[in-house]
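Tutorial, part two.
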Amino acid sequence: MRPFDNKPEGASFFAVQDHGDVTVLRLGIHVPEHMTDLRETDRLWDFLAGRHGQAKKVLLITSEPETLAPASLDEFWTHVHKDEAKGRLPESQIAADVAIAREENAFRHFVELLRNSESFVISAVQGQCDFSFLGGILASDYRIASEDTAFINRLFRSETTVGVLPWFLSRFLGHAEAADILLEGRSLTATEAYDLKLVNKLVPSDCFEQMVFDVAERFASIPTHALRSLKRSLVASVEGLAAYLDRIGTGFQYRARLPQNDPW
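Running the prediction step on this input gives:
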């Protein structure tokens, strides 16, 4: 079986496949919507927290090409606001607020688990990726993108939220560059993201899966104590994420509080 042959089936939005010291976590479609399902997210938290066995040395997170695209997030907002055309009845507003709160909590927990995991986490992304998901990708320890990847910035032109992205961008790039990208609405090609070192490695799209797995296996050959010590040092060098989340949140609640006639 090839490394990425496992695909989520049925109600699940993720699948796991073990390859010795490397574990592949493959996300399926409709990730934002599934993140509001407490049964599904509990399964994911148990896995990421290593509650069903010792944490693997290397965790490789990948997804279907359309999983992180803007359309995926748009589907979530359409689902949340499905009763808006009916006049937004009080009970539908409550349901929407609950869904947004669950999404916020899930995204925050996902980022914190990646940062605190004993596994060395690699994120591999291909195709279009909405900027809202870029924060989660930057929470990993190493990032790989296919050469045809595009990070689409719609932060002030849609219901997409800012999330943890400013925190990561300001630490990776500095305040000025981060502010320029966010305020000017700059989308990034894979090459631009690589030049900014938001992405560690670019690989051709026609051999994406194998090259990504080869990188994961190469890292897995590093002694366990050395790899985990390196991760702890890298994470400690950018401390402050928890305090940021406590003060700012991930952004979903901000959109929920906007007046209905707000132009954003």
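The longest strand covers residues 14-19. In part three we will examine how such features are distributed along the chain.
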